[in-house]
Write a structure and sequence with these properties.
mainly alpha; Glycolipid transfer protein, GLTP; 9 helices; binds ligand 1PZ
Length: 215
C-alpha cells in the first residue's frame, strides 16, 4: 500500500517494500526499489519542509527511473541487472564525463544507491540508540560516512543545516508510526538485513561493471 495517500503512513510498510525487491535469483526489481524510495520520500516530507530540497532531488530521480520503466524499452528495466546490461550493451551511459546521456538509468540509480547506504547506517544507529541519543547526530554521522563523500561543499552544508531540524528521537519514532520504541527497534532489526542485502547486491553489480563513479 505504499503510495496510497488515504492511509496513515507507516514506515514498516515502506521498509517491507524492500523485501519485494529481491527476485529468487537475487536480482533487484526496479519497480519495488522505486516504490521503496517513494515511501521514504513521503516519510521525509512528513518531517517538514526544510527537507524539501532533499525530497525534490529524490523525486526527480525516481521519476527518471519510472519513465524508463514505463517507456517503450520498459521490459529492459525490470531489474537493475537487466537495466545495467541493456544500457551498457547499447552505449546509453556516460562512463567518464557527462555527455549525451546525463540521465541514464545507471547513473540515476547510483545516486539512490549511495543514499541507501546512508539509510542503512542511519537506521542501524537508530536501532541501537538510547533515549537520549540525538537523531541529528546519528543522521550526520551516517551522512559523513556515506553520501557526503559524493557531495560538493554547498550540499554538505545545506544537509548539515537540515539535519539540525530533525525532531528528537521520541518524536521521530512517533512519525514512523510503528508503535512503542521496542517495536520500532524490532522492526528495524528485521528490515535492516534486507536493505543491506539489496544494497550489497547492487554494490557488487556496479563494482563488477566499473560503474561506481559514474558522472
Ligand atoms: C531523515 C533525514 C533525511 C536525511 C537525508 C539524508 C540525505 C541527504 C542528501 C542531500 C541531498 C541534497 C540534494 C541533492 C543532491 C544531488 O546533487 C545528489 C547527486 O545527484 P546529481 O546532482 O549527481 O544528479 N543527489 C543525491 O545524492 C541523492 C539524494 C537522495 C536522498 C534521498 C533521501 C531520502 C531520505 C529518506 C528518509 C527516511
Amino acid at each position: 500500500s505504499v503510495g496510497v495517500d488515504n492511509q496513515k503512513f507507516c514506515l514498516q510498510e515502506v521498509l517491507d517494500t524492500f523485501k519485494l525487491c529481491l527476485s529468487e535469483n537475487k536480482e533487484v526489481y526496479l519497480e519495488h526499489y522505486v516504490a521503496g524510495w517513494r515511501g521514504l520520500v513521503k516519510f521525509l516530507n512528513s518531517l517538514g519542509s526544510v527537507f524539501g530540497f532533499i525530497s525534490k532531488d529524490a523525486v526527480n530521480k525516481i521519476q527518471i527511473l519510472v519513465t524508463f520503466l514505463n517507456g517503450e524499452n520498459g521490459s529492459q528495466y525490470v531489474t537493475v541487472q537487466s537495466m545495467v546490461k541493456y544500457e551498457l550493451d547499447n552505449q546509453l551511459v556516460d562512463l567518464t564525463k557527462r555527455g549525451s546521456y546525463p540521465e541514464s538509468g545507471c547513473r540515476t540509480l547510483l545516486r539512490l544507491h549511495r543514499a541507501l547506504r546512508w539509510l542503512e547506517l542511519f537506521l542501524e544507529r537508530l536501532r541501537t540508540s538510547t533515549e537520549d541519543s540525538k537523531t541529528s547526530a546519528m543522521c550526520s554521522e551516517s551522512y559523513n560516512e556515506s553520501l557526503a563523500q559524493h557531495h560538493p561543499w554547498a550540499i554538505r552544508k545545506a544537509s548539515g543545516l537540515a539535519f539540525c531540524m530533525l525532531p528528537g528521537r521520541p518524536a521521530f519514532f512517533e512519525v514512523m508510526n510503528v508503535g512503542p520504541p521496542e517495536q520500532v527497534v524490532a522492526m528495524l532489526g528485521e528490515a535492516l538485513p534486507l536493505i543491506s542485502e539489496v544494497y550489497q547486491i547492487t554494490e557488487d553489480l556496479y563494482a563488477q561493471h566499473n560503474l561506481l563513479d559514474l558522472p
